[in-house]
Amino acid sequence: MEAHKQSQVKAEAGSRNPIVGALPFFFGLALSLAMGWWVFPDSLFSKEPQPINFSHKVHIENVGMECSSCHYFREDGSFNGFPTTQECAECHMEAMDWSKDEVAFVRDYVELDREVDWKVYQYQPDNVFFTHAAHSMDNCGMCHDITEAELCSYGGCHPNMAETDKAPPVKTNRITGYSKDTMKMWQCEKCHTLPEHYEMTGSAKGQACFSCHK
What predicted TM-score, i.e. pTM, was given to this entire model? Predict the structure, then answer.
């Protein structure tokens, strides 16, 4: 009887302990934060693979190609985002190393004269004016001793594709329809607000929002 009373007193004391009572709250809070920080953001985006696996690393490091070999300005001033199958066939009319991916590309696209339905990693936001002409090696390369791959990747404009041996999936927001890699304003500010870029920061003073935004 006495032992039962003592255990009951201890149980009542434990129930009155604020720390013990708060444990479920803190556990739930930690679980919610983990879900909101890691699980939910990842599930918000769909993942779609490219039609074929393309290795930027092989073409840049092994072959010595530049970004502008495939992504360039046409004679009319428009920007060519993806090479045509005919352009790829200049080197890949037949498989060169007989890898599974290259054999599939030659068989399914070159021989059938089909265009590859490449998935776009970065769409230009609908509310932004942007031209690649002002962000090319002709401008940035005047002061910066960098390669085209470094300009695109390390400058924060594009994902670091130069070192990828496997094409990463395209992540698209299920709600907005935008790619996860679509440029954000803070990425533009990495260059456009630097004090040493006095020409860019100076020319931006006094300009209205619609100078860059629709």
Answer: 0.65
**Are 108 and 114 a contacting pair, CB within 8 Å?**
yes
Residues of the chain with pLDDT under 50: 9
pLDDT at 207: 65
Our CA dihedral for 139, 142, 144, 150, rounded to 10 degrees, sits at 50
Asked if the structure places residue 66 within a domain, the reply is yes
Is 95 strand, coil or helix? coil
Under DSSP, is residue 73 helix (H, G, I), strand (E, B) or coil? strand
Sign of the alpha-carbon torsion through 68, 70, 73, 74:
positive
Q: Does the CA dihedral 170-175-181-118 come out positive or negative? A: positive
Whether residues 172 and 193 share a domain: the answer is yes
| CA distance to 67, 73, 79, 80, 133, per residue, from 76 (Å) | 19, 8, 9, 11, 12
